[in-house]
């Protein structure tokens, strides 16, 4: 009478492990697809950073353009201030007195002329560009070096040294040498104050230093392809007048 019941129990017992396995698998699936699933965090801060960088670039371009436009419109004012700054330097230079007076007179005339409200900014910029290239204050240094050569050198070294300085002056006159070239030429006989940046000739010049100047002068003249001969003496005031005239008719460089 009890055997049928035993058979049912055995059947139920044999099926229970499979049911438990399915239940565990279902729970595992719920864990995989549920609590432990990765979440989408989105693009983050990158778009904001890119947009901010672009905005900063645009702002910088606008500021640069506005600043350039302002400076472009104030070229005459900048030229006047530059010329005014040159005058004290010229007054303290070693230019010959009559040549110095003519140079200062031209500067004062330029300052008054360019300072006019209706003066063309383009022409003012061209004049300033040409004037600042001239070794105006260093012209007198070349004269002082030549005077030392006259007093301390003997022929034929004296004549050759004077010729090299003459060739350098010709290079300046023909726009083949600038103020930076002359600064390099006279460097052996110059002392630079590290605090103020001012340049002065050495109080005690020695022949070895002057020979260094002459060597540099020859290198400069050869590079500019200046003929190896002595040229007629010319004053800085004459060169300045020529450059101002050229700036008004042909513009800057």
UniProtKB/TrEMBL annotation:
Keyword Transmembrane listed: yes
Entry keyword set: Membrane, Transmembrane, Transmembrane helix
Region Disordered, residue ranges: 1-38
Top-rank taxon, per record: Bacteria
Biased composition (Polar residues): 9-19
TM segment ranges: 48-72
Name of the protein: Uncharacterized protein
Protein's organism: Allorhodopirellula heiligendammensis
């Amino acid at each position: 009478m009890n055997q049928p019941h035993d058979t049912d129990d055995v059947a139920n017992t044999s099926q229970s492990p499979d049911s438990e396995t399915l239940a565990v698998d279902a729970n595992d699936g719920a864990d995989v697809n549920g609590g432990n699933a990765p979440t989408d965090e989105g693009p983050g801060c990158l778009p904001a950073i890119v947009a901010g960088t672009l905005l900063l670039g645009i702002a910088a371009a606008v500021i640069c353009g506005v600043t350039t436009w302002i400076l472009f419109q104030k070229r005459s004012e900048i030229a006047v201030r530059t010329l005014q700054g040159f005058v004290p330097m010229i007054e303290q230079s070693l230019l010959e007195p009559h040549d110095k007076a003519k140079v200062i007179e031209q500067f004062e005339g330029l300052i008054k002329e360019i300072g006019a409200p209706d003066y063309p900014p383009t022409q003012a910029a061209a004049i300033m560009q040409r004037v600042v290239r001239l070794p105006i204050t260093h012209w007198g240094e070349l004269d002082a070096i030549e005077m030392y050569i006259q007093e301390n050198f003997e022929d034929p070294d004296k004549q050759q040294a004077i010729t090299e300085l003459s060739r350098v002056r010709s290079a300046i006159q023909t726009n083949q040498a600038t103020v930076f070239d002359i600064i390099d030429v006279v460097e052996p006989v110059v002392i630079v104050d590290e605090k103020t940046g001012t340049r002065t000739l050495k109080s005690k010049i020695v022949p070895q230093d002057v020979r260094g100047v002459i060597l540099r002068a020859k290198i400069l003249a050869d590079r500019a392809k200046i003929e190896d001969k002595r040229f007629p003496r010319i004053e800085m005031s004459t060169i300045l007048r020529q450059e101002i005239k050229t700036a008004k008719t042909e513009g800057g460089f």
